[in-house]
Amino acid sequence: MIELVPNYYHEFKCIADKCRHTCCAGWEIDIDPETYALYQREKGSLGREIMSDIVLEYGVPSFKLQGKDERCPFLNDDNLCRLILAKGDESLLCNICRDHPRFINMHGNVTETGLGLACEEAARIVLGAKESFALVRSDDSGEEQEGSEEDVIYKNRDNDIRIMTDRSIPLTTRIEQVCGRSSLDSVQRARLFLSLEILDPSWRIMLEQLEQYEAHDVYIPNETCYENLIVYYMFRYPMFTGRYALENALLAHDLTSSLDEAYTLEDIVRRLSVEVEYSDLNPDTVAEAIDAYRTC
After folding, report:
1. pLDDT category of residue 214 using cuts at 50, 70 and 90
2. pLDDT-based confidence at 238, cuts 50/70/90?
3. Fewest beta carbons less than 10 Å away: which of 82, 121, 233, 238?
4. Which stretch, 149-153, 184-188, 256-260, has highest mean pLDDT?
5. Would strands 102-107 and 60-63 be described as parallel, antiparallel, or unpaired?
6. What are phi and psi of 106, to 5 degrees?
7. What is the pTM of this model?
8. Containing H/E element for 105?
9. Taking a C-beta distance cutoff of 8 angstroms, is the pair 6, 235 a contact?
10. C-alpha closest to that of 202 among 288, 268, 290
């Protein structure tokens, strides 16, 4: 098995209590079978507390979320994990807690692991990367397999990423070569994302505010952070066209430009990631809608 990660991947480390948007609240926390068995074996008062804070729904164990903010029962008032504090390491964390905000794509004998933008620290690293995006091997084992249809998709994506990261060419030219031109204005784009399943009512308000703005020309500043953002979407969603990456980046730019200065690009892409990437339906819905606009 070949393991590939972005060249910025190992910069990530959870910032714990310094995080303004803890991932330990507002999410369902399903517990994988191996960790559930570990919890059942845990002795003493901690083991009893863990088991008392687990609920089984359709046979799937998860933590009972607490209060209106739906906080993990083991998130203390300082936004630190009591399970880590108890053991001094991550040995009691379930897979979803240990892996977040990472995502994994697999094809052939290749595993690609990236950092998802729903985490503010991951968003800072991805958008702020100074070096051009590159995939690097995290191990020295295995040989690449050739010939499958999936291999072709990934090779085409890798070629598009090489073009998008060629900084000898203006960013707008690279975008047109790889992603084509957008057929949506800012109002249409806002309405597309308003049509999706929405988790946070404040996200709806932001999109509705954008919907009220007059449509403006499609434009992305010639800034490295937008190159990094477009490449992120291409890397994470190799099965989608470059237009998917472009429209998501344009929405992030639209919102950053039109809303109060308190919202940075990092703030916007984090919320966009939460609303779209952590839904089972939304990414496909966006991709299909973009293709439909292109064929109109």
Report:
1. low
2. very high
3. 82
4. 184-188
5. unpaired
6. -125, 135
7. 0.91
8. strand 102-107
9. yes
10. 268
Q: Is the pLDDT of residue 147 over 50?
A: no
Within a 10 A sphere around the Cβ of 45, how many other Cβ atoms? 8
Pairing between strand 110-115 and 135-137? unpaired
Measured CA to CA, the distance from residue 8 to residue 30 in angstroms comes to 28
CB neighbours of 18 closer than 8 A, spacing ≥ 6? none
Cα separation, 210 vs 188, whole angstroms: 10
Structure tokens at 87: 């053991």
| Per-state percent for the chain, helix, strand, coil, to nearest 5 | 50, 10, 40
Nearest CA-CA partner of 28 in 77, 64, 52, 56: 64
The edge-to-edge listing of strands for the beta sheet with 110-115 is 102-107, 110-115, 2-6, 135-137
Which residues, other chains included, contact 136 with Cβ-Cβ below 8 Å and sequence gap of 6+? Answer: 4, 5, 6, 7, 9
pLDDT tens, position by position, 168-204: 999 999 999 999 988 888 899 999 999 999 989 999 9
**Overall size of the chain counted in residues:** 296
Cis peptide bond upstream of 170, omega within 30 = no
Q: How many CA atoms lie within 13 A of 280 on its CB side?
A: 0
Q: Residue 133, Cβ neighbours under 10 Å: how many? A: 20
Q: Which residue has the tokens 């784009």?
A: 189
Q: Which residue has the tokens 């729904």?
A: 57
Separation of alpha carbons 117 and 49, rounded Å: 32
Q: Alpha-carbon distance 160 to 213, whole Å?
A: 33
Q: What whole-number distance in Å separates Cα of residue 183 and Cα of residue 147?
A: 34
For tokens 């901690």, the residue is 46
